[in-house]
Amino acid sequence: MFVVCYQMVMMKDMGKPVFKGTTTIGIRCVDGIVLTTDRRVTAGFYVANKRGRKILQIDDNVYATIAGVVADAQMLIDSIRAQVKYLKVATKQPPSVKAIASLLSNLLFSSRFFPYIVQVIVAGIDREGPRMFNIDFFGTLTEEKYIATGSGSPLALAILETRYKDDLTVKDAIPIAIDAVKAAMKWDPGSGEGFDIVVITKEGVEEIPQERYEKALYKP
Amino acid sequence: MSTYWAIGATTVGVKVDSGVVLSSEKRVSYGFTVTSKSAKKIFKITDYLGIACAGLIGDMQAIARSLRAEVRLYELDLNRRMPIRAAAKLLANILFSQRYMPLMSETLVGGMDDTGAHLYVLDAIGSLIEDDYAALGSGATIAIGILEANYRKDMTIDEAKNLAARAVRAAIERDALSGDGIDLLVITKEGVEEKFEAVK
Distance between CA B168 and CA A92 in Å, rounded? Predict the structure, then answer.
């Protein structure tokens, strides 16, 4: 009991202030993946950073979006990135997206009683095509077609829910993802400062910051 | 960045092309009792790297000691200077290793290496984010206003120094937990220069 209480106290103290506000969005399309996040990093109601990178690379064609405590997410992704690198050498082939997501899920569950306070979307392309998974801080692993995490997720999901279709292409999905993150930034104080996009297709990966997207009105 | 523990302090960092300025005030308090007027919250680690903290003084001294030891060991082993990114990540790992019993200090890591000037912001458990300017502690909300309004990427190191001091001074005026003078650490490719400015 003491351990649980102690942990809950720490979670209350530590988990709350850092990075609680966020909006991250993932859409799985027929030809690839679209990930979008806002850039605000908060400590309580103080905006600690205005261009936080919340989309991190795990493998050549696999990316993750992070929401939760920054330190936990960074350490988690660092460790998974190392494991994936090792697996690649040991098995002479890149691990599937599902394998990477399971690795993350196992690591989170192994820390069941002292959880890493994160919610992660792992998405990418492997031999089976575009795959996307949502993982919570206990290690719950679910495959998703479209998902949003963070404090802005209810707002973002409202947009996704009305506009998602099964035959979406990456080209169609990018404006939807952006509208969703913009809606969240307008009504969620924990999100803001513009957005980053990562588009993963068979042809490769493209990272598009808001400024470039708006300049070129990106067409894949 | 200070809503969690009563971190009474103001610490700011400003990065420009030619270097980094770290600045902090000198007050230590226990509630409304001032327990020291001469604390140092900025630490020279090597002659190209420094840190600035907000939090428990003992913890920040421990952080500075172990980082200094690690950086010196790195230099001795590899016979070259430690990149600032490496030092910041090393400190993040040290902090994260105490995830469930943290050293209660938020830290700025600033310095010059082959790739130019760098400024990193770390929280108590090792979140690591690079930035151009930052403020920590209870006076951060005041100081960041000054930085936000006046920071330019093309400032000279002297302008950066003045801006950092001005931000801390503004925080001292209105934050009861900050005061008693301003310490400055100026890191350029010529080396590290420490300065003190009295207030009132």
Answer: 55
Residues whose CB is less than 8 angstroms from the CB of residue B22 and which lie 6 or more positions away in sequence, other chains included: B11, B12, B13, B42, B50, B51, B52, B108, B110, B164, B184, B185, B187
Amino acid at B162: N
The DSSP bridge pattern shows strands A146-149 and A195-201 to be unpaired
CA distance B108 to chain A (A): 12
Closest Cβ–Cβ partner in A18, A44, A74 for B128: A74
A114 interfacial to chain B (CB closer than 8 Å)? yes
Percent of chain A with pLDDT over 70: 89
CATH no. for B3-197: 3.60.20.10
B159 burial level (CB within 10 Å; 0-12, 13-18, 19+): middle
| Helix, strand, coil percent values for chain A (each to nearest 5) | 40, 30, 30
Residue from the list B4, B100, B128 with its beta carbon closest to the beta carbon of A17: B4
Contact B128 A49 (CB under 8 A): no
**Contact in structure between A116 and A137 (CB atoms under 8 Å):** yes
Token couple for B197:
């400015």
Q: Is residue B68 classed exposed, middle or buried when 0-12, 13-18 and 19+ CB atoms within 10 A define those classes?
A: middle
**CA A28, A189, B121, B90 torsion-angle sign:** negative
Q: How far is CA A43 from the centre of its chain?
A: 19
Taking only the tens place, the pLDDT of each residue in B13-30 is 999 999 999 999 999 988
Beta strand spans in A44-117 (E): 46-49, 55-59, 62-68
pTM over 0.80: yes
β-strands B116-122, A141-143 pairing: unpaired
Domains and CATH numbers, chain A: 8-206 (3.60.20.10)
**Residue in the block written with tokens 């206003």:** B145
Tokens 């310490």 map to which residue? B183
d(CA B122, CA B88): 8
Residues across chain A? 220
The 10s digit of each residue's pLDDT in B43-63 is 999 999 999 999 999 999 999
Query: What's the rounded Cα separation, in Å, for the pair A107 and A75?
Result: 11
Task: State both tokens at B55.
Answer: 């939090």
CA A69/CA A81 separation, integer angstroms: 18
> In chain B, where are the structural domains located?
3-197
Helix count and strand count (H, E) for chain B: 4, 12
